[in-house]
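Quick one - first record:
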Amino acid sequence: MKKLVKYLLLLFILTGCPQQYVLEQLKKEPNIKVLLLENKKSVNVSTLSGLYINVAGEEVALPPNKVVKINLNKGILTLTIGDSLKINGVSFPFSFRGREGYVKINSRRYRGIVKIIERNNLLSIINILPIEIYLYGVVPKEIGYLKSNRIEAIKAQAVAARTYAIKRLIERSSKIFNIYGDVRDQVYGGMDAEYELGKRAVDETKGEIMLYKEDIVEAKYSSSCGGITADALDAWAKDFPYLRGKPDTKGHRKGGEIFCKFSPHNKWEKRIPIDVFISKIESIYPGKTLKAWKVKWNKKTKRVKEVILITNKGTFTMKGYKFRMLFGLKSTFFTIKQAGSEVVIKGRGYGHGTGMCQYGAMGMADKGYSYRKILKHYYSHIWIGNLYR
């Protein structure tokens, strides 16, 4: 813990945040600011028992069982309660909280405070709430609604998601929001995503995060690794010593039974008409005609590092993860060949493959592994510390 305090103090000093703030964050659970929606012209806010609106520090109670319609049109902000009652004198930013402890945004419920801001002449909606409550709405959206026999996998997900969130919170401490509520960071479903087993996993690991030496881990995770996890350098063009590819087997032994073998994405195939394949490639390199291609694999992880494209105007290299996005492939763990009038791509796994394999975590839980052993299987040489309790 002393190492962690020292690291965080240094980090916050370098980013201009006061030391006292860091110490306070270590003593208690911090709030996190989650970007729920952006670039909206209108949004509806409601609760059955009523809302409080806070404008410039002044809080006013609004009538119960009424929808507040917020519109921003050509710079003009309009708030309407129900069908006709308009709220005047409201300026950005303003926020809502519900008498029942939640606020409904359009059709979804969110705990904590909902803040409305203007960005680029459009509405953005930010949910501000304690990080552990935030995790209630993240864990099931990321690993699914599992049963009690897989509680250790759910706990592993809780620690990974908390670690990821804490790292974003620190990095973006001075920003208007800390984390995206979608696949750009972690999928967050709010109050309606919560379920008891997920909440239990969060509660039983409260405050726990992963660290490598004195650094908070970049806690990447994905659905299914296909039997071998990926090097971070191949997936993200940035290296992390604890995110190195390895067999997803007991003791990382080659040839062993893989933990994620039951994943529906363990093996997959995609066939693309050759003319469509060529057309997509050439759309990235206008004015060039594709003549042939070669693939360069990471020999250890079997993932595609680069696709070498040979054209009438020279040779070009496309990163494996960019090739994956271009053709909507499940992963970069694939082989590719031409078969007649088609390009046949056969692959394994789903996602970037770096860090924790979620199906593998389930497989390990099935075999009796604890959440700590699951995490240390996927993140090399890490330790688990507790920020707050």
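second record:
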Amino acid sequence: MKIGIPREIAEGETRVAIVPAMVSELATLDAEILAERGAGAGASFSDEEFEKAGAKLVDSAPDLYGQADVILKVRPPSLNSGAEIDMIRDGSTLVGMLSPTTNTELVEKLLAKKITAFSMEFMPRITRAQSMDVLSSMSTVAGYKAVLVATQYFGKFFPLLMTAAGTIPPAGVFVLGAGVAGLQAIATAKRLGGKVEAFDVRPAVKEQIESLGARFVEMELPEDVETDSGYAKEVSAEFIKKELEAIGSRLPKTDIVISTAQIFGKKAPILLTEEMVKTMRPGSVIIDLAAEQGGNCELSEPGKLVEKYGVSIYAPINLAATMPTHASQMYSKNVTNFVKHLYQAEDRKLDFEDEITRGACLCSNGELLNEYVKQSMSNVGVTS
């Protein structure tokens, strides 16, 4: 079996799917590891490191894709002229973050080429799969970096300072959403000395928030707000009204908002309306981590910094790629664990009865297997 590690070509993508330290682990599958020259350059991993780890360097993408039985990527293969999808061998295996619900053309091509594709976003949230959970890993990076980005646009100190020139109060930080990104943002803001509050529609996270030293902003909960899989779910108009009231009450006293609330596979909920932004103090900062799903702030523009009513609003895209070395290390470990799980049988056959294998599989042998993606494609008039 030959496993290929291509150089990512998506704009702004600096990560690599497999770092040199994981090459030897994949080699335990009795596999030959092929790495395209320059694959790790954006994440500060040299070709020499890949060679030393046991990978064979390949000069070009067509050569790599033409040889590999299994392709390990970060981003979906490209579909444009000279597309990566056209280089991938029919009947081979592809693993990566494929964004299938927003990329029906890619899904159709994967089906036509009978590629067995695994979309890492669909990793089941069960104990056995925790070491393969790329969403959690990348959210950890994003939550940490979001606070650092906020300091760039915030014109004040974060911590309480007592100086001869007077006492400077700590920055008030309000984190919306206490998933992995939110909890990491809370921890980072606390380490920098901020006074941190956090809000989440799931009361179960109160203990986690308070364990990090932040105050949990509570609200009345008229309905259940969590799916069986542990994700936040869509709620009623009445609930949204109460939610916005709870958030809005804190904004006039807040310097920095880190917004992380997302609903898996859906447009992100609007938690910060234009009217709410108007109540914030001049010089305040909003970092909207839900930009790729439309954003939590009504005034956000994905990938841009905008200033409205004296407030700086930044909605970064692919924030994990701004910390490529550690983001690649974490992603690489997740993918390596998954690939070793896929091919654990002596005959290297895939076990689609296994919950992890079946849950992460998008399609195989021309058949669309993921029920969520099936529904998404049927909604836009595409059938498999």
